[in-house]
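S., here's the first fold you wanted:
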Amino acid sequence: MTQKIWNVYLSGEIHSDWRERIIEGSKAAGLAVEFTSAVTDHDASDMVGVNILGSEENNFWRDRKASGINSIRTSTQIKAADLVVVRFGPKYKQWNAAFDAGFAVASGKPIVTLHDAELDHPLKEVDEAAKATCRHPEQVVEILSYLLS
């Protein structure tokens, strides 16, 4: 019998190594997991629309082109995921991560949030929808280890 390979979508903050810590920790634990994610190169993500569809003088339309193309990837990968991990970092507001969390829940996908305690209050509704709220990427690996054992 073949072991199921879980598909885990990693959403959110792009300014720290949390994704790498989850991926490496899962590899070290020998977990049958594949990870997907949004494009984490900020400039590539922001400029994809104008790079493909042509330049825009107005930033609104530049961002609209990029968000349309990026949303194809994001929504497809969330729909294919068995679990969605959503990281909220302390430095920037991750509105896109909050949207991903809501989209995942609306799509019937379980979510795990990952953030510092200082964000408990602003994220109370998102955390309420989550199956777990973690403080460290290693806790996500522990949850995956438990789920896959």
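And the second, which I think is the more interesting of the pair:
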Amino acid sequence: MSEKSDEMRSVWKAVLTYLKLQIENIRLVSTEKSAILLSTGVVAAILGIMLAFALFFISIGLVLLLATALPIFWCFMIMGGIYILLGVTLYLMRTTLITDPIARFLSRLLLDEPDADKQQKSL
């Protein structure tokens, strides 16, 4: 009877050790994925701000270029029309250009299991 009791204790210890390791693995993976998600969001925000500044200066340059041939009022109206056209195009293609890439990124980040072979090779 003592042998079965010792065997049960060792099995129980192994199960507890396994559960502790699984919990630690979940903590590490969730921390890693949260860091990737947060850093991607920060990079996207910074790039968005830089793109907004670039578009602003390009718009001013195009207005000044058009002003050599047209009155300044019509140059601003043309640039406004271009931005409206770009906005409508973006709205019509929002699923293809925005929703699908974000959904693919999040599903790849959150649902794909880390490949142990890739991690070992990178070390």
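Why I say that: The two ends are 48 Å apart (CA to CA). The mean pLDDT is 88.

Talk tomorrow,
H.
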